[in-house]
Prior knowledge:
Low-confidence stretches: 204-210, 681-688
Number of strands: 4
Distance between the termini: 129 Å
Shape: elongated
Amino acid sequence: RARLVLALQVKNKAPAEVQITAEQLLREAKERELELLPPPPQQKITDVEELNDYKLRKRKTFEDNIRKNRTVISNWIKYAQWEESLKEIQRARSIYERALDVDYRNVTLWLKYAEMEMKNRQVNHARNIWDRAITTLPRVNQFWYKYTYMEEMLGNVAGSRQVFERWMEWQPEEQAWHSYINFELRYKEVDRARSIYERYILFKASAELVLVHPDVKNWIKYARFEEKHSYFAHARKVYERAVEFFGEEHMDEHLYVAFAKFEENQKEFERVRVIYKYALDRIPKQDAQNLFKNYTIFEKKFGDRRGIEDIIVSKRRFQYEEEVKANPHNYDAWFDYLRLVESDTDDETVREVYERAIANVPPIQEKRHWKRYIYLWINYALYEELEAKASKRTRQVYQACLELLPHKKFTFAKMWLLYAQFEIRQKNLPLARRALGTSIGKCPKTKLFKGYIELELQLREFDRCRKLYEKFLEFAPENCTSWIKFAELETILGDIDRARAIYELAISQPRLDMPEVLWKSYIDFEIEQEEYEKTRSLYRRLLQRTQHVKVWISLAQFELSVGQEERLLHCRQVYEEANKAMRSCEEKEERVMLLESWRSFEDEFGTSATKERIDKLMPEKIKKRRKLQAEDGSDAGWEEYYDYIFPEDTANQPNLKLLAMAKLWKKQQQESEAAAMDPDKDVDESQT
């Protein structure tokens, strides 16, 4: 009932705004308790009974604590140290022994026990404790260090050495061996230290070789120990044994750097070079950066220019090797690598690198992927011919390359031509002709025909040239340059009719790549032969095909140049005819070009009447605007352009009249706008 009443009275059950945690309550209670507790009173012991009573209470307290929790070693140590402070050594020993029975693996317990004995000058007891400690826990290095240090401080060198020997049988860590070595060196026992180093690196147990610490750094320390004590032959022997021990499978650059520096200190510079080169040839390049660096420094100090260059070349070679290893199809890297090896290595090495390079054939049979690759073969062949002077190998390189190329898809004319030129240099003309003939049969190309024809021209084999031109024109009848060269060849040989027939055959082809060049060459040919009637006929035939203004101007200039008395008349007639023919031409600029050429002619050779006439024919240049449209058909604004109005075109006359009326209307519009803006001015002007 009371609870029910209390629950009815507490209506607001929401949490209070200020919350107090249990931690805060405990902290405040502790603080208040400390403030209220008075300091303990100081006790003074005045007689033996009080002292014995105090000892009894204290021992009872320690025993109670131990009884509560025997595994808390700190209670045992405090108990023993308290007994030690009372000079109760026997009791302290008893406590330590009891504690060791509880936990003999506790390192601190052994250390405190031994320190107590040493502090109280109980040497034999301390030795006994250390012996028990290292026997029980032989892997705790601290016991061994303390034990050997104690024996050495007591002057018992033999005893300390004996402890070290017992320790070494356990094959401890490196620092233990160094401590033993330093101990022997402190007493000038170099031979003993050497024997320790031997055991340190290679430990013999029961007639078997056990590797204790065969690291490179330990071999180096051993050699430096010998060097420090001036046993240079022993030091060299140690380095040589280390090199032999690790072999070529586990080579380490630090060993060779240390070996080289030792020989450098002994002024054995040739041995240093041999060591560095031996290591650089066998250690992977990515693991030999420090070796490269030290070798470079050595050569700068003691070497000549050649030695320094060798180092730089080796370093660059390593860089190129990494590049081509990362991407074998990086042909630019191969080119740089080959340029490097060609400058400083023998022929076999260069050939090996070339073979590695050309083995990386492009994976796709598309010509654009082969354009850089083919130059590897070209450079290889040129190297064999020019540098190695091996013509047989050069021929093999060319033939291997030509067999590799997929001629059905594409070929490289330069490769065929280079091979043919090589055979000619070797005075083997049949092979050169066979190679070029094979190329034309397998994969005819314009460049191959031109190269073959040029070769036969140099050899003055004109009949072969004629046959090649015939084959060439069967392959590419639209090539105007070939027709022209063929006709020029016949002209040089004096066969004019044959040359003319070639020109006639050429201009009759249905498709030509540069017909204007061909016609010009044919016309020039007839002019050189002074066949003016045939030249006029050619011009007329050309004008039947095209009404280009340049053809008319060329014809007029021809008439002006060949005639004597009637040349001016013929030239003027050509201009008249051209002007009539071009009235229907849509390109007004060409007509203007013709009239300007005609006016230049009249200015030089014409009379005042002809000059006046040509001036009347010249067009009027006017500016116009036209509407522009974008690609999507939208309005793109207006564009200004120039148009020409020719007086002869009667169809344009109404347009001219309309244009004049438009100009007059615009002028009147401007005047009316000016009068509307300033009416007072008009009144004043009327009054005046």
